[in-house]
Amino acid sequence: MTSILELKGIGKRFPGVVALDGVDFDLRAGEVHALMGENGAGKSTLIKTMTGVYEPTAGHILVEGNPISFRSPDEAVRHGVSTVYQEVNLVPNLSVMENILLGREPKGPFGIKWRGVKERAEKAVRRLGLDVDVRTPLGSLSIAVQQLVAIARALDVSARVLVLDEPTSSLDAGEVEALFEVVRRLRDEGMGIIFVSHFLDQVYAISDRITVLRNGQKVGTWMAKDLLKIELVSQMIGRDASALVRTESIAQAASSGEAIISAKSVGRRGSVSDVSFEIKPGETLGFAGLLGSGRTEVLRLIYGIDHSDSGTLIFDGKSVSKVRPRDSIHRGIGFLSEDRKAEGIFPELSIRENMLILYQVKQGWFRRIPLLKQKQLAKDLAEKLKVQPPDVERSIQQLSGGNQQKALLARWLAVEPRLLLLDEPTRGIDVGAKFEIMSLVESLRQSGSSFVFVSSELSEVVKTCTQVVVMRDRKAVGTLVGADITEESIVEAIAS
Amino acid sequence: MNRASLLEKMPVAITAVVLITMTVAAGLHFPNFLTLRVLTNLLADNAFLGVVAVGLTFVILTGGIDLSVGSMVGLSSIAVAKLMAGGHMHPLLAMAVPIVGGAVLGASQGFLIAKYKLPPFLVTLAGLFLCRGIALKISLESLQIDHPFFNVLTGWSFALPGKAALTAPAVSLIVVVAFGIWLARQTAYGRAVYAIGGNQPSARLMGLPVDRTLIVTYGISGLCAALGGVLFAVYTSSGNAISGTGLELDAIAAVVIGGTLLSGGYGSVVGTLLGIGILGVVQTAITFQGTLSSWWTKIVIGILLLVFMLIQRTIESVARRAQNA
Prior knowledge:
The complex is a heterodimer of chains A (about 500) and B (about 325). Chain A has about 500 residues and is of the alpha/beta class. Helix content of chain A is about 35%, strand content about 25%. Chain A has a six-stranded mixed β-sheet with strand order 6-9-10-3-11-12, with helices on both faces. In chain A, strands 18-19-20-15-21-22 form a six-stranded mixed β-sheet, with helices on both faces. The longest helix of chain A has 16 residues. The model of chain A has no long low-confidence stretch (mean pLDDT about 85). In chain B, the strands form two sheets. In chain B, strands 1-4 form a two-stranded antiparallel sheet. In chain B, helix 1 runs parallel beside helix 12, helix 2 packs antiparallel against helix 10 and helix 2 crosses helix 12. The radius of gyration of chain B is 20 Å and the shape is globular. At the A-B interface, helix 2 and strand 8 of A face helix 1, helix 7, helix 8, helix 9 and helix 13 of B.
């Protein structure tokens, strides 16, 4: 088979950092090639060098055997290398057809020929098997459809190489399958597709070959069918991954003592209904269910961002009518939002300031915490959570997603909550950071802290939770405890 | 047409309904209101404001703002008078110089905004002071314009039935609006303006010439403002450095009442024309009434602005709900 895109000895240096070091990579016509690695392994940098965002400082790129250097994304596109990013980079206020053809509209004597625009856009969406009125404003469509529109735009320039950078992180299972169908069709048409994802199952479902990067270097390339999943993870994190399986201590954890919180058929009109559970010290309660099944909504009720209008919430034996986030913090309850960017980090502040902001709130706004003490606290937290790089005076924006998440976790740990609500704490972060966050949760649980753990990845729920509430259609439909918690039993409860 | 695109056209539709309702109501109340003559007068009286507002519409569509347009009107009107009186320039040249100058000044504001990522509010606020200052430096007093050619222009009109007539400024407004509609709908430039207003980083990643589009947009706004000043000079046969004071705010009001979102991405030149229409009808109706002071115009516009903002916000939230459903 012939390579349509070849990277030879690619190196990329930033001031003070070597992001890529002598990486080889090749993409064949008619294959899906997955690019795997932890955050910070160099995946994004490699993608950016082959799509013209960065210029490599060493090595060269060949397109169909001819050496080429891309100076801009535009130029890469002209050579048939198109990219669809994780966050849909289209404009929501314009129609589907405009988003596909913006900047390349067919023109006549009176300007843009709208009939031509419509015809070409319709052809482009039909090629993807997408059934949508191309005059619809993009913003009114689901993220999944928007993603397909982004692909349609990429294909309109007769791309030979399609780079999909984390395209599935906000899609549900059905939408992922629809996307994969399109990817398979394009592959069978002879296109080369590079697929980047954190979801191992998806990588195995779609890829022909897998290349793993670690610390800016290539670890190796394998045929997907020859590489066991556990081996892949070990290659990515560079150590044995068997430590990631559910331990006996979780399966047998039994908790006694007063419930920190108990909910009796709690609900909120238009949001969730009939949710009951109880959390005692030393327990991790999982909410499992499909995307949109009401998991996040329940956490928002517990923490007091939204207010319940039916059922009762009992904190430490006392029934409480209206919870506010401030009360929750004083009760020792914390909440880590799934939306790290919008509801988590303060992007302009340093890692130290981000970590200690709640600590300051707890101390009182007007009590000064000496800088030396702040630095010591932040340094201890960064060490405990293995934040990389450990320099806490940097802006939090310079951290990778996984390390930002660790810093946010540190923010809560600084105030020592009794119960921490974690909403998708592992989403969009690399395997190593996932592992560290999950083990941290487990070791804190063993020392008596409690958690609520929400994750779309059932294996993570199974590995960390002592009891699981299964959600479906915004209702709690069952509770699993102890040894009954398996991926199969959860799926069964969701489907039953 | 589906529900989502229907919602998008709602603001303009509401503006149109309000304009028609107000016109009909005024027509029922005041005889002689619903005549062609009132309409042409309305166009003539608001021509310079309308031209300024069309240029500003493009700026607001990108999500920006141009506060310098009012001062630009003053500067350009006094420049026309000064170039003819002091410089003995032919009127055509004396009108062309400020228009070109306005485009260049506007484009340089756009350059600062696009290349150095400076906030449009502050850059054009500086422009506001700069232009007004230069205008007052040229002449503190109002300068009469008396030139045979210019007088022909001032007196010219295209006769219509019913003693109605389209003056030169009115015709200019119609031409500018038509050109603006074409520019926004039918050109790659116009669509780039909408894309930038929708999501600027995305527009950049889609390979659109974001910087160039912004520079051109502020250039167009400056050009329209300077043209507005020239029309003002034609309309009043004089140049005045303090003309157009606060005009930028009237223009913003017209654009917003016309259904263009201040956050950018949504709106139209047609809407702005309707917005100007509403302002004009309010003004005319109050003149017809006779006993109310002209400040009532401001009060009514204030109320209208508030109401339109609330309507737009409601539409937005309904649209979002439709999207999530």
